[in-house]
Design goal:
Order of helices and strands: HHHHHHEEEEE
Distance between the termini: 64 Å
Keywords: Membrane, Transmembrane, Transmembrane helix
Protein name: Ubiquinone biosynthesis protein UbiH
Strand content: 15-25%
Structural class: alpha+beta
Organism: Tahibacter aquaticus
Number of domains: 2
Shape: elongated
Number of helices: 6
């Protein structure tokens, strides 16, 4: 079967659709229309800026060691390996099994999902230090610093900004600002506070030096 045939047939069709949705999401995130923490449950208690409290996190997430990674990163990693394993299994294994396609395809989907979660755990765990910053330290050190807006706009519940913390360290913060404002992508702003309820940093337009 051709590659396109595998993509459009059961069972590979299901993870292929998920991969397509995630590709659209990441393209929108890259151009600044979304921030990468804008989907999924907030199981980190406000994002990747602090050590997460393990209480309330999915048990499987903790067991796989993915408890300090954003939802979008975890889902993307699992989806990629699920899609890859399902494609390989559809091409190499299913033609050899003398069972109905719905049965073998379903078994392949389930088995591939389990293995994909394990592979994603191995691949993503080294990234955890990049998303772990102590909350108190981050709040105190980010407030008052200049930042560069990463999203196309900053709204009262939406926005991302990059802060230079010194020694080459950069933090990506979830931010917000009162509207109306003129904060757009690549403009300079200043971090003026932290909203504990929203778990976002308040930014304001940087005035003239």
């Amino acid at each position: 079967m051709s590659f396109v045939g595998l993509l459009t047939s059961y069972p590979a069709f299901l993870p292929s659709v998920l991969i397509g949705v995630l590709l659209v999401f990441w393209l929108l995130a890259i151009v600044g229309l979304l921030d990468f923490d804008s989907i999924g449950p907030d199981w980190l208690g406000g994002g990747h800026h602090h050590d997460a409290d393990a209480e309330g996190l999915p048990d499987m997430l903790l067991a796989l060691g993915l408890d300090r990674l954003p939802f979008s990163i975890v889902v993307s990693g699992v989806a990629f390996f699920w899609w890859l394993l399902t494609m390989l299994g559809s091409a190499l294994l299913l033609p050899l099994l003398p069972l109905p396609l719905w049965a073998t395809g379903t078994l392949l989907l389930l088995a591939a999902l389990v293995v994909a979660a394990l592979l994603a755990s191995l691949a993503l765990r080294p990234l955890k230090p990049l998303f772990t910053v102590h909350e108190h330290s981050a709040q105190q050190s980010a407030i008052g610093k200049r930042c560069r807006i990463l999203t196309l706009s900053v709204e009262e519940n939406f926005g991302q900004a990059e802060v230079e913390m010194g020694s080459g360290t950069r933090l990506t913060l979830q931010v917000f600002a009162e509207q109306p404002n003129d904060l757009v992508r690549d403009t300079q702003a200043v971090v003026v506070g932290f909203d504990a309820q929203r778990k976002r940093y308040r930014v304001a337009t940087l005035g003239p030096d």
